[in-house]
Design goal:
The chain is α+β, with helices and mostly antiparallel strands. Among the domains are: 155 residues, no CATH class; 59 residues, Herpes Virus-1 (2-Layer Sandwich). The chain is 36% helix and 25% strand. Strands 1-4-5-9-8 form a five-stranded mixed barrel. A four-stranded antiparallel beta sheet has the order 3-2-7-6, with no helix packed on it. A hairpin with a 4-residue loop joins strand 2 and strand 3. Helix 1 packs antiparallel against helix 4. The longest helix is centred in the C-terminal third of the chain and has 60 residues.
Length: 320
């Protein structure tokens, strides 16, 4: 019987599944931490009381807060992309930013710092046009060598318009010039800007948490399934070895208790496999006496070499 071994495919599947489950669990914990932070974060109106609140706060800053206001100035981003059969590659991207503020109900303003560092979809697409590619002979040669054939170029312009209601989640501080500002939190919390209200921001975070948790469970289940299959194969192999050893002990015991005839070494009683040793075992359930016990153990599969029927057990034979 062949020794038990784990295939490279099984090892790869199990390792990849557990690795992906670990990555998904890490992302789930990060998403869960964001959700917990959003549950605790205060939603503050932009008015004079907000400035007074920050002034009496130690360090004149709120580590994490939510504000909603109207954009007063604009910044935009223009990017040109090339579409291929398999991926989208950025060929050129130009971004320009004009400082803007969020205006509250009583004309109190909050300056938004470093909006490029914020996550979230907070710009509207104002221009989108696709240009089909025209390839020269040199481009065709390059595409043949690289294996990538562009379909064309997609030009997109996104802009944050004046008058848009924007939700910001971050750290509120008072600058040295007395201006109230929103910036990325210094404690590592997520900096968010969104065109939707705060409840929608929380729903998006909850949805992300759910999907990361689902993917973690899915990959972990796949890894456990592969590990269970390997364990089952290992147990099946051990069980077969134990049964083989038990048969060998029983065969030796019964063989020692019997007497073999002098004609065991006659040509008509020779093992049909090795043609050397006498036939000294009966293969059940078919009942054929055709080989020696050593050759039976060397069979690649437990099947009778005469009739190909499955071998259930083996007992020694004694000639009288």
């Amino acid at each position: 019987m062949a020794e038990f071994s784990v295939t490279a495919t099984e090892l790869f599947c199990m390792g990849a599944s557990f690795a992906m489950s670990g990555i998904c669990y890490y992302m789930y914990r990060r998403s869960r931490a964001v959700v917990e932070q959003l549950d605790r974060v205060p939603n503050l109106p932009i008015d004079e009381s907000l400035i007074n609140l920050i002034r009496v706060t130690p360090g004149e800053s709120l580590q994490y807060a939510v504000i909603e206001g109207t954009v007063k100035l604009v910044w935009n981003s223009l990017s040109q992309r090339a579409q291929t059969d398999s991926e989208t590659t950025i060929l050129h991207e130009r971004s320009s930013m004009v400082p803007f503020v969020l205006v509250g109900s009583d004309e109190t303003t909050v300056r938004v710092q470093e909006p490029f560092h914020a996550s979230g979809d907070y710009m509207e697409t104002v221009h989108e046009k696709f240009y089909h590619s025209v390839s020269t002979f040199g481009d065709i040669i390059g595409q043949y060598l690289s294996g990538v054939k562009p379909k064309g170029q997609l030009e997109i312009e996104k802009m944050l318009k004046v008058g848009t209601t924007l939700t910001g989640v971050g750290e509120l501080i008072i600058d040295k010039d007395g201006t109230l500002s929103l910036r990325a939190p210094t404690n590592g919390a997520e900096y968010l800007l969104s065109l939707r209200d705060f409840s929608h921001v929380k729903d998006v975070a909850l949805s992300s948490t759910f999907w990361w948790k689902f993917l973690f469970g899915l990959y972990a289940l796949a890894g456990v399934a592969v590990f269970s299959w390997i364990s089952f194969c290992y147990y099946h192999n051990l069980k077969a070895l134990w049964r083989q050893e038990q048969e060998q002990r029983e065969f030796e015991r019964l063989n020692a208790a019997g007497l073999q005839d002098e004609e065991d070494n006659q040509p008509d009683n020779t093992c049909v496999i090795c043609l050397n040793q006498p036939r000294n075992c009966v293969l059940l359930d078919c009942g054929h006496v055709c080989c020696c016990y050593r050759c039976y153990q060397a069979l690649p599969q437990p099947r009778c070499p005469i009739c190909r029927q499955a071998i259930i057990r083996v007992v020694p034979v004694h000639h009288t």
